[in-house]
Amino acid sequence: MTVYRFTCVICPLSCSVEVEVEDEGGRVKDIRGFSCPRGKEWALKEALSPRRVVMTVVRVRGGEEPVVSVKTDSPIPKDRIRELMSYLATLEVKAPISVGQVLVDRPLGLETRVVATRSVRR
Ligand code: SF4
Description:
The protein has helices at about 35-50, 80-90, and strands at about 1-5, 15-20, 30, 50, 55-60, 65-70, 75, 90-95, 100-105, 115.
C-alpha cells in the first residue's frame, strides 16, 4: 500500500488529503481529508496520473531576442516532462513570433500544443 499525502491547491483552504493506493493493480483503497468533490477529484488525479503545464524557452532564429518563452496549453503527464524538455531544447523557431502562436502541435504525440507566451519580432 502506498499513501500519498497532498496539500490541495484548488482553493485557499489548503486541505490535507491522503490517498491510499494498492501497490498491485493501483486501485484506490481510501481517500480522506478533502472537503469538497473538486479536491477529491484533484487528489485522485495527483495520486494516479499527475500532470503539469510545462513552461520553458525555445531558441529563435532571426529574431530581436535569442529565445521565446513558451508553455504547453494543457497539462501533460509528469513522467513525460523530461522528454518534452529535451525535445524543446533542440528546437529552433523562426521569427517573427506572436504571443499565443502554436509553435508545435502534439509534440512527441502528447495531447497538447506548445504556444508562445510572448512575441518576438524579426
Ligand atoms: S478539498 Fe476542496 S475545500 Fe479543501 S482545499 Fe481542496 S478544493 Fe478547497
